[in-house]
C-alpha cells in the first residue's frame, strides 16, 4: 500500500495536453505510486453503439493481456470497467510511476489480437460465475437496493456466456477506436510521482486516428457530454483515490 511519509502540501496538476490527453496528478509524500488510464465509454456506451454486452469489459482484459506477464506482475497492472469508463492501472512501491504510464499508454495503441480474446475469455467467464455465486454479498445487496435488478447490472457490464460468444476482435478494436479520442482519455496518478517524466511520456502519446467503422451500429465515434476541461474541473482527488485505490481489484477477480 501507499505508505505515508512526513506530510507536506503538494499541488494537484490538472491540464489538457496538445495531443488531447487529460492529466490529473496528485504528488504525495509517500513511498509508492498509483497511475491509471481512464477511457470514457463503459458498458452504457458499449450498448449505445450496438455491441454485445460485455464488449467494454472484455476490452479491459484484452488491453491488460497485451502487457507482458512479467511487467503485469512487477507493476501490479489491473483494470476496472464500469457503466461509464474502462480503466487500467498499476501501482508500485518503488519509483516507477513513469514506467506505469508508459505501459498503459503503450497498450492502448497496440492493435487488439485474437489471442487476447482467447486468453482472457476464460477469466471473464469465471468472473461471471463468481458474481452468480456471490450475488448475496454486501455489494449485490447495495446494488439491489438501488437498482432492484442485479442481473441487469451484472450482465450489462460483464456480459453473459451468450453475448460473449458474439464479441469479435473487430468489435473490441472498433469500440476502442471510437472511445480513444481527445476529450475521452484521462491519465491520473497519485503518490510518489515523477511528474516531469510522466508529462514527457504523456506528451509523446499519439491518440490514434479513428478507423472508420462500416457497422451502422458502431459508426458514431463521438460521445456526447461535457468537455475534458469541464470533466477535470469536477474531478476531486478523493474520487481518483477511490476509483484507483479503494476500488482496486485484482485482474480476473472482479468487475
Q: Main traits of this protein?
A:
Pept_M16_N, 255 residues, disordered C terminus, Cytochrome Bc1 Complex, Chain A, domain 1, MPP/UQCRC_Complex, globular, six-stranded mixed β-sheet, Metalloenz_LuxS/M16, 12 helices, alpha+beta
Characterization of this structure:
InterPro entries: Metalloenz_LuxS/M16 (IPR011249), MPP/UQCRC_Complex (IPR050361), Pept_M16_N (IPR011765). It comes from Nematocida ausubeli (strain ATCC PRA-371 / ERTm2) (Nematode killer fungus). It holds the Pfam family Peptidase_M16. The protein has 255 residues and is an alpha+beta fold. The chain has one domain (13-246): Cytochrome Bc1 Complex, Chain A, domain 1, CATH 3.30.830.10. The chain has helices spanning 43-48, 55-65, 69-74, 97-107, 114-133, 138-147, 150-158, 161-164, 169-179, 195-204, 228-234, 237-246; strands spanning 13-16, 22-27, 33-40, 78-81, 85-92, 185-191. A six-stranded mixed β-sheet has the order 1-2-6-3-5-4, with helices on both faces. The protein is globular. The two termini are 21 Å apart. Residues 3-8, 142-153 and 210-255 have low confidence and may be disordered.
Briefly summarize what is shown.
The chain is of the alpha+beta class. It is built from twelve helices and six strands.
